[in-house]
Amino acid sequence: MPALAEPLIAWYRGNARDLPWRRPGFGAWGTLVSEFMLQQTPVTRVIPHLEAWLERWHTPAALAAAAPADAVRQWANLGYPRRALWLHRAAVEIRDRHDGAVPRDVDALLALTGIGDYTARAVAVFAYGDRHPVVDTNTRRVLARAVDGRAQPGPPAKGDLAAMSAILPADDAEAAVVNAAAMELGALVCTARAPRCAQCPLSDRCAWRAAGYPDTGDERRKQARYEGSDRQARGAVLKVLRDAAHHEVPQDDVLADWPDARQRDRAIDSLIADGLVEAVGGMLRLPR
Question: What pLDDT does residue 225 have?
């Protein structure tokens, strides 16, 4: 077994959080929805939205039968609402191409709207138990420190999957645990700003610790400030439409008092371009 796998497995079995998508029988559809929601959104915010979503649409076919506007409304304030449209489109594709069953094959998953390398492999591994490397931001940080001796990972690269593959055991079930454990370790212990090295199961074999915790720079892309941003304006436009009767409002009335009229217009235009808002006869509405 690779050197990092055994301590990761032992740590995970004693420290993993009890999360809905880790429970037996959660299913591939639930796993897929959770992975869409977890992109750039904290776990604590996702859980109530996930439970409400799956209660309303317990299969891909159920979501596919709904209007895209229903998906956008149900997404509520999770942020990055294009994910709601992508998830709806993926549900339609699953219904039409795969007889309503979330596919197991990574290439088939990658062909669905809104699914990239991480989500495709996460579904194949965590829902179906197949052996693939699963790499998220937390995993990349753990590998950067433990294997490469760097304080922070570089930008995402094709080599990330190979680096994760190198620490996976041959056994499918154990490989799935190592994938989950690396993500969990990065989320709870090997954090970006204040790693708790004394609690880390890899501390005795961590290259960064052995080198004396050198400052090797930080090439991570910084997230733009939300307050006052176009993203905040987009969210405000969507909230007006979600809350309105019939979910449509005269365009001139949407955020009429927004402090930056140009930003308001940019937000509306970008939402229309993304398919999240429709402009019909001087009215703005959620997509139908």
Answer: 83
- In the set 35, 93, 184, 248, the catalytic residue is 35
Among candidate residues 126, 151, 178, the one where a domain is terminated: 126
Q: Does residue 88 fall inside a structural domain?
A: yes
CATH code of the domain containing 31: 1.10.340.30
CA distance 52 to 57: 9
139-192 per-position pLDDT tens digit: 999 999 999 999 999 999 989 999 999 999 999 999 999 999 999 999 999 999
Please confirm, yes or no, whether 227 is among the known catalytic residues: no
8 Å CB contact between 91 and 60: yes
* Structural domain ending residue among the three candidates 126, 151, 170: 126
Residue at 247 is within a domain: yes
pLDDT digits 0-9 by tens, 224-233: 788 889 889 9
Q: How far apart are CA 265 and CA 262, in angstroms?
A: 5
Tokens 């140009």, residue located: 262
35 is in which domain, residue-wise?
Answer: 27-126
For 286, other C-beta atoms within 10 Å of its C-beta total: 23
- Residue 134 pLDDT > 80: yes
Q: What is the pLDDT of residues 238-274, one digit of tens each?
A: 999 988 877 789 999 999 999 999 999 999 999 999 9
